[in-house]
Amino acid sequence: MKKAFTSIAAASLAMFAVAAHDELLGPNVYIFSPEDSPEEIAATVEKVFKRQHHQQFGKGRYAFLFKSGDYTKAGTFNVGYYTQLLGLGKTPRDVRIANVKTPAALPSNNATCNFWVGIENMSIADLDNNADPYFNFQWAVSQAAPARRLYVERKTVFDWFFGWASGGYAADCMFLKPAGSYAQQQYYYRNNEFAQGVYGINWNQVIQGCVGNLGENAVDGPKKPVASGSPLAGAKGTSNWKDGGCTSFVEETDRIREKPFLFLEGDTFKVFVPAIRRNAKGISWGAGKANDGMGEGQILDLRRDFYIAKEGKDSAKTLNAALASGKNILFTPGIYHVEEPIKVVKPNTIVLGIGEATIVPENADAALRCADVDGLVIAGLIFDAERASKRFVVAGAKKSVVRHEKNPAFLIDLIYRVGGTGKPGKTDVCLEINSNDAVVDHTWIWRADHGDHTGWMANTSKNGIVVNGEGVTCYGLFVEHFQEHDVLWNGENGRMYFLQNEKCYDPPGNATWMSHGGKKKGYAAYKVADGVKRHYAVGLGVYDVFINTDGNSVFLDDAIEVPDTPGVTIENACIVEIANGDGPLVGINHIVNGRGYGIRTGKDSGGGYAVQRVTKYCNGKAEERPDSYVKKGN
After folding, report:
1. Cys-Cys link to 111, which of 140, 239, 366, 513 (CB 3.0-4.6 A)?
2. β-strand pairing of 198-200 with 237-239
């Protein structure tokens, strides 16, 4: 009986070609073949899951790679922290597995801390389910857990048996049965195809570039198309927010490049770099598309075109030498401490991480700096602060006049963490975008609210993301807990689709937490600079969780601040009160620029859990939904 393998020593001579691949990618990459024992595959995946399930800030990093074939006899795979499942086929239908689940890491089915996992490029089969009474594809995750390029035959559930979840992101997937969650706080779907509808989600949902059956409540009730209702003001699409819903349906994705991925051609590893699509609808892959169904794009050879980075071997010096020589970089699973910034200097360079590869700057400047050049793709990496560093990632040069409309930089599945990981961490700004026309496709930028070395004076960080470039676009922006503006947008002609934000848990009180020279309480989560003339943002959620304030009352005047000018529009924005009801008085007074009903909680506040909404704000005029507290009779 053939066995699943993790190293050359574990492989027989008959499996030498596969073992060589394993040597190429390092000991934390498991490469499975359909000829391997299903029992051994299942045991290997489960062993890693049990090791990782409660290691929220652990050091292990793992990638499971599946060669083309059928793995359904291996059963359901459970997945825990810092683990990524990747199919090695040309399309998702080339790798077929039975099912995947991400069990809640917290008690009471709570998946709000299910982070740092990923799944890409495979099929989730719909079998007879006799061996699995809970047969849904249960991708019960919150932030930093993207699902990409999947063919899902089962019903999809984005929670763990109706426990809370705070996610999430799914792109370039085909769902043959209903997909959604009645417990998820928010969700962002991009360029998916739905055969039987999208359901659930409580506060804020953006469905962009998706096709098929876009019905709400497609499971338990009559289908109510989300692609109906009021037209959006700043994008081609519709919204049901005015009718009491929470969905913004955007028909097209302005410009997008799907994430590069590994695949096998024979026994040779290749990397497919998808082409840029404009005004994109639906998935990028499938029958009849170029490159045997992969879609339009470029094929690179892993050995020839990439430098393969490995934990414990590589430093900033070796990585920068490889980049300067014209190589792309593949980061294999591990934690990389860099004594100087990694410098991406040549056009069209690909920097790709697998298995939750993590970069830690051991210098006062930055983890990674990108030159102001065309066509960069930086994807699939975690950035950690374990000491004081001014930035994590800097894209482009400040005040650049160079435009990149035809071939912009793409920042894909990049995760930033300040604190929580076991060592003190500080940074001024996690992501600074100076490059004009750059695109962010899914990111979680997190000043830690829990874990080690967290607190107002411990893991200090002003801003999550600062955008200085013109024409920058963000899809799926998750930014939380920063001490000043979580998002600061200085560049013109920015477009942002979907924001999830919790304000900092721990401001010590409005005596010190004030902006505008002490005239306004707190710092807006989403700030568009005063001089900006054109900007559009849709689907914004900002939440109050002021729970670690040393007993002090804390209020934020405005969740969102924008200049009052005809070219700046905020559409479908909400604030949610989820702080403790028995604590000090806390809340958010307005949604945007003094408009929109506020939220509040604490002893004798007359408030509590509530969602308040503004459907449009532009140039001083707001379309407000009714006050949630009045509706509840308070």
Report:
1. 140
2. unpaired
- pLDDT tens, 435-478? 999 999 999 999 999 999 899 999 999 999 999 999 999 999 99
Task: Give the C-alpha separation, 607 to 614, whole Å.
Answer: 19
* Angstrom distances, CA of residue 480 to CA of 186, 199, 436, 526, 542: 14, 26, 24, 11, 9
> Is 311 one of the catalytic residues?
no
Measuring CA to CA, how many Å separate 602 from each of 133, 544, 579, 606? Answer: 43, 12, 8, 8
Tokens 């602060």 -> residue:
385
Per annotation, catalytic residue among 502, 561, 577, 623: 502
Rounded to the nearest integer, the mean pLDDT of the chain is 93
Contacts of 479 (CB under 8 A, 6+ apart): 443, 444, 445, 446, 464, 465, 486, 487, 499, 500, 501, 525
- How far is residue 439's CA from residue 495's CA, in Å, rounded to a whole number? 10
For residue 604, the one-letter residue type is D
Q: How far apart are CA 483 and CA 338, in angstroms?
A: 26
- How is residue 170 annotated by DSSP? E
According to DSSP, the residues that pair with 112 across neighbouring strands are none
Three-state SS for 13?
Answer: helix
Look at 231 and 8; give whichever has higher pLDDT: 231
Distance CA 591, CA 561 (A): 9
Upper half-sphere CA count for residue 504 (Cβ side, 13 Å): 30
Q: Strands (DSSP E) along 473-553, which ranges? A: 473-480, 487-489, 494-502, 514-515, 520-521, 526-528, 535-544
Q: What is the DSSP string of 567-616?
A: TEEEEEEEEEE-S-TTSS-EEEEEEETTBS--EEESTT-S--SEEEEEEE
